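Quick one, probably user error.
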């Protein structure tokens, strides 16, 4: 797990990358409850790269705010590759952002199953029309799982942006 000060450094690094490109990021967060946006907005001047963020904890919110289809939620569940992809696309479209980060997972202590144990977190990244997703399995208590998810989202976003040609 990355210590909080390192999380702040990750957020600052992502913000600097976005600012240099004059790009915007948006987040669609479920299990992290706005934590990614929290770290991004903790930096002075973050309005240069963050216009809005979505905390869509319920399925209803995912549908209403991000356009996630009820059929997707019924067939695959809120914590799934299919759902986070729809969350990322919906957030990017609503915010007119070049980067959208979507996250949905099971932070615990309850809510897990054999198929989706506590610590299961799906991520999707929409980068200028290119959609990718990743499944991560984190360990620890609720707060540790949430923090690890925030850190992963920031780290992976940095990786995606630095891999782009200049």
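Nope, works fine. Designed sequence:
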């Amino acid at each position: 797990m990355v210590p909080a000060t390192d999380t702040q450094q990750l957020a600052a690094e992502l913000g600097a990358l976005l600012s240099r490109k004059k790009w915007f990021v948006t987040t669609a967060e479920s299990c992290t409850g706005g934590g990614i946006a929290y770290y991004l907005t903790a930096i002075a001047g973050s309005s240069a790269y963050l216009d809005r963020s979505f905390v869509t904890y319920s399925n209803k919110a995912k549908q209403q705010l991000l356009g996630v289809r009820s059929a997707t939620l019924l067939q695959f569940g809120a914590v799934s590759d299919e759902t986070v992809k729809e969350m990322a696309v919906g957030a990017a479209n609503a915010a007119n952002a070049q980067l959208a980060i979507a996250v949905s997972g099971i932070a615990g202590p309850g809510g897990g199953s054999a198929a989706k144990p506590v610590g299961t977190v799906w991520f999707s990244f929409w980068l200028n029309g290119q959609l990718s997703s990743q499944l991560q399995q984190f360990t620890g208590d609720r707060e540790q799982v949430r923090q690890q998810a925030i850190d992963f989202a920031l780290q992976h976003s940095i990786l995606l942006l630095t891999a782009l040609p200049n």
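The chain is about 45% helix and 20% strand.
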